[in-house]
Amino acid sequence: MLTRYLFTLSLLIASYGVSTEHVRANDGLVVPRFEDVTAQSGITSFYKGDWQYMVGGGAAAFDCNGDQFPDLALAGGEGTASLFVNKSKQGGALQFERATSGIELNGVTGIYPIDIDGDGLIDLVLLRVGEAVLMRGLGECRFERANEAWHFDGGNAWWTSFSATWEKGSKWPTLAFGSYINPRSEDNPWGSCTDNQLFRPHDDGNGFAKPVALKPSYCALSMLFTDWNRSGTPSLRVSNDREYYEGGQEQLWHVEPGKEPRLYTDAEGWKFLKIWGMGIASTVFPNENYPSYFLTSMSDNKLQVLNSAKSDTGPMPIYKDIAYDRGAIAYRPYTGGDLKPSTAWHAQFEDVNNDGYFDLFVAKGNVDRMPDFAAKDPSNLMMQRPDGRFEEVGDAAGIVRFASARGAALADFNLDGKMDILVTNRRENATLWQNVSPSIGNFIAIHLHQEGSNADAIGAWIEVDNGNHINRREITIGGGHAGGHLGWIHFGVGDAKEVKMRTIWPDGQADEWATIASNAYYRLSRGQAPKAWNSN
Amino acid sequence: MVRWKTRSGGLRRVKSAIAVFLIIVTGALKVEAAPLTSEDVVHKWYTLSLALIRHTPTYSPPVASRALAYLGVTAYEAVASGSPRLQSLAGQLQDLKPLPPREAGRRYDEVVVLDTALATMTRDLFANTGPSGQQAIQRLEADLHSAILSAGTDAETIMLSENYGKAIAAHLAAWSQEDGGAVVENMGFPWTYELKKGPEHWVPTNPLSRQQQAPLLPEWGRNRSFAMPAGASCELPPPHPYSEDPSSTFYKEALEVYQVSKSLTPEQKAIAFFWIDDAMASPTPAGHWVSILIQIAEHDHLTLEKQVDALARLGVAMADAFIGCWHEKFRYDLIRPISYIRRVIAPDWTPFLLTPPFPEYPSGHSTQSGAAATVLASIFGDPYPFTDNTRERDGAVPRSFNGFIDASKEASISRLYGGIHFRAGIERGFEQGKCIGAYSVALKTWR
User: Does the interface predicted TM-score (ipTM) exceed 0.90?
Assistant: First the structure.
């Protein structure tokens, strides 16, 4: 019999003293309510710097001390990166404490959490202007440089994007690093994009071999290993900034074990697309099998769904942009009076009102004194309705702020079953919004684990049947803008008291469907039944 | 034959020989930098401006043509003010008042005057470019200033020359503010716009862009022109009457676009790609033609005076061409091939090129190219063989032409291959361009 931890929302409401009047029910849509708790939270992190820090500013949410509460690592740009240990009580106010962790390097543009060496301790990838650095997790939120130990050459570039996968048969991950402009070409930066690099595991099973340049490279601001066609072998999607490349476009790479990476071609269905690519967010719409992708840009963003008939060889990578059809519109500010086009960075799909439909958060902010684009450019929170359309609720939800946002991390920081929002801002302190919605739907949260390498089961799929529809999530590392999260995977489940769920592990093995209670956190170790976790 | 770039005649050879000797003797690794020339200054500021056009979001093709006109006039007036062979364009270009005179009896450094004028005007025209553009402007300004200082010119002359260069730029910048094109909001797309009713009229062609639900710069045809009297100076006859009857000329021209698109040869695709000249992906049509001129100036070692004369005439002609073209575009407001063909011929048809967000008639690139060829042929003659590598870094193979007319006709027909214009819009646009270019040719520059 499973140990069940039932989280009582009513108790939370009572303990937190939040009035239900903040929640607006508009045409059946439950609008979440957020409070800016930055000042009380202990978060003080500015993404500093001039030209070389006009992009980046990533945030990483992950657990660095084993207490299951997501901690935060934030890029500091010209300043130093910071690590904040989560001191929140479950269901309580969000509290963080800055810790000296070893990641306090300057020049950091982005941070991704990943357990590289399979020791069960999360490591960090630091993207920097200069040398990329791998930081080995030592436990208790301490890290040490591991470039030499893992034979990793961090080069000397303007690193801006990252993704990782475990190729079949490999105990170590394959790391993709995306770089931006040649930092030494300040006088003529256009057309100077430096090579992205693919680091595969060394044959001796320890660390990494010499990297392979992913040529051509077009100033990648986001990369994501994703099994777009459910083939079992993820491909590498790369979103590129058209501002700086010449002759470039968006890219999709074949990355197949034992083979040189190669680009998908026109003949394979890949369509030419040029955007100011800045971030990739993936989601799977209810009852769908294939991921869709939201690509952030300047002005119009893209929401791409696979639009290819199945064939014997599987679907072709042909996508249809449904952003406007679905109302996923963030092309200019929805409030504040500035009507100029927006600039979008990090994007992330999460269910912030637990209604069983993944919502879309988009961090926005002017690059830097670009008068043709909105200076007052609030981030977006678009709620997905059951019909698949999105509705902007940023103002009603309480997240309107006119700082110049860059990275973000949506995570359940106080483990109250509600997704909170951390946003980094250029030249200003980060912003932390606590989700204080008093009456939203039920949820489950799942943390996958498998023994040995790839402990966090990157490449797995989780499927949750809430009785109304099936939601699927691909477990990935990468995408967003310069940062990501690792740990609890959150599913809103609406009114469901219990749901069915199963895991399809990275090697394709599918678990049996299991019934689990809602409003609980589950550690799910491979080969075992879901096991509820509580903080007591 | 090697052409020596010098401000001080044959002395440079002597200087270079001394420098080489010193390097050998001292074992120094650095080679003395060649003195900065006015030709260098023109080349560097134009090269940067073409990059800024591509990387500044406001810079749609009409806006780019305007900037290149002002930049050309700036370079020209800066040089003409110190040249006994050139005369000012004041009084010839619309509303351009006489420029501030030089102080009699004072010595000016021509490189400094030209550099300061171009730097000041570039900063003004590209004030809204992004952080990389701003930084590139500052870096070039600093690099050129450093080169100027290293030439050993006395401080008083430098200051006098800088002030004069700024005065020229200020005069021209003030002139530019009154032309109707100085302020471009929302990247040129009106906040509100009411589409004209009727099947013949333009409808938005890009459903994925919210901005492009209105056409680009619908008022641009009312801007003050440069050499031609007004936007209406080279009006066109109406396009073929709209009809969905297969026997109509309109239908036949649409069918031609459709059929050509279905059988595009590799060469036709290469031509369409070579002349694509889209905003944010190229220096735009006007920039493409300026790029051709810059390549010719380098290859053929044009004198400074001939360069600035050509740059001013070409810039003016293309800015006028877009004003005249836009005047007609919004006078007739004709539907694009993609809209008509999908409605009448083939619902799923997609052209080779993306359709720009404004009415069809006439073709902007055809008007541009007709005007450009008219101006360049008048200066250099035609045939005048050249090779154009403008789009080489974008993956387009350089193309060689017998002359400007040859190139301009290819640029024009590229719009048919691209599936974005009917033949009438191409051919009449080209004729309109020739008409407009003639006004620029008529400018008196040489004394």
Answer: no
